[in-house]
Amino acid sequence: MSTSTTTDSAARARDLLGVSGLTNRALAAWLHGLPGVDQVGCEARAAGLKTRSIKTDSKRWAIDLAISMIDLTTLEGADTPGKVRGLATRALVPDPSDPSTPSPAAVCVYGDMVAVAKETLGESGIGVAAVATAFPSGRASLEVKLADTREAVAAGADEIDMVIDRGAFLAGDYLTVYDQIVAVKDACTRADGSAARLKVIMETGELVTYDNVRRASWLSMLAGGDFIKTSTGKISPAATLPVTVVMLEAVRDWHALIGEMVGVKPAGGIRTSKDAISFLVAVHEIAGEDWLDNTWFRFGASSLLNDLILQRQRMSLGVYSGADYIADDAPSAY
Amino acid sequence: MRKTYKLFIGGAFPRSESGRSYEVYAAAGRSGKRAFLANAAKASRKDARNAVVAARKAVGGWAGATAYNRGQVLYRVAEVMESRRDQLVAEVRTAEGLSPARAGAVVDAAIDRWVWYAGWSDKIAQITGNLNPVAGPYFNISAPEPTGVVAVLAPQDSSLLGLVSVVAPVIVTGNACVVVSSESMPLPAITLAECLATSDVPGGVVNILTGDAAEMAPWLASHLDVNGIDLTGAADLDWAAFEAAAADNLKRVRRPGPEDLAAAPELTRMTAWLETKTVWHPKGR
After folding, report:
1. Taking CA atoms, what residue in A is nearest to B45?
2. ipTM for this model
């Protein structure tokens, strides 16, 4: 994975748009030149993907894959160090009754909790993702957003989940959105030259139309986002399957055009194993098998892990399991 | 109109997730023929699983309601049953092949039984609880608490009175239940579900599944999120195997046995689904 510098990505963007200078007008022309999304067709496709029957061995495989793709998340005003430690411990040992259970990909917390999560996770290989840039609204000056990002990166965050400026996007000021993503991407660079992976949250619930989702996806990829992410989880609707279908099409087309893979992360509202498996079906059918890996696809979720573990236990024990047999999701705050 | 009745899960009336249904016939008439009555949903193990989830969701609020409130809600159910008495009588009559007078008596007995159990909601603690004498300046109080989610296999041969006799004692103390109704006589159970849905019983406190008990019982018996199982309707099944499966998470089990449903009930059907909590409290001066 290359960490493109600001100049590289600007040159590439100019190249792609066929312009000598990156202006809002050029961006708007490019984004509005993308084919429109057939809303009815897209929703019908998503509904069709939901009906696939995944059973026995495939289901077992899908459940383990889904667990390994989770960004185990707590983003509450009431988060305490104890709660974050509890969540990180949960990520280390998702099911104490079955050590073969895979771990989630990362723990996702606010920037000030990165150090706490990092300390608990140690060298386990489980990443720490931090939301930054005045999450969830993104209503702050660029300086504040960048400081927020740098702080999280300095504290050891492996991944940064930024929010785009939806106000600017909806007002048609695509250049501001682009510039902010580029600046945040730059702020993800660590002192040693390596960089935290950048997930760009588009908050699809506030973008309203699928056309906007497609435009925001392309804009985020153009600006160098390593991941495009549906939502903050604070707005409903959050990660719906049709929205994710549109985004998967975007990363597929981007890959065909540029030859570079971008990840997708639906977040918020995915609670059951059945939901998660239908998302995996969509990944396989639309983006392709290469994306069926936690480097390129993630679930932002908190309660999904419980349901996946219940299903996993059901398949290994042969009986239905219950909440009493999985680790407490909300351990004591102390 | 030829109807296809649905299940009752979480306060809603869904079809079976399996999409299956089965034909329901009246009791054999004088000619020996059995008239077609309606179709009923044939619940699957996954419907049973969904019902357990609904019951688990409901049990906190229902157990947390005051005993007085639960009693009032259950009285209301009896009122709704009474207002639909004609329908219940007709269904019991065709299902069980009774005379109109006999069917009327059975329905009245069922309503009376519901009222009888409703009355116990704020009285059972006086009978099963206790102020224990201890060697110290403490109150030591034992009080009954609901066990949680109870799976109930309703009697196969008593479509309404049998059903009421097994459901009411489970929920009056604050449990939630998943009931598998009589397979051949499910219509009175569905009407009872409609009575429950139109009274103030919170969705999920009673979940009624129609279909083959033999298909669902093993899954309910082994389900780790079920706290008790009433095997009353499993006399003709391999209930010993269900009891063995239930042991895994120490479910409370009530075995099938000879029982005169027409006789006045005892407290045992309520006390079977109660836990005892004992608390110490300083007496002060």
Report:
1. A320
2. 0.90
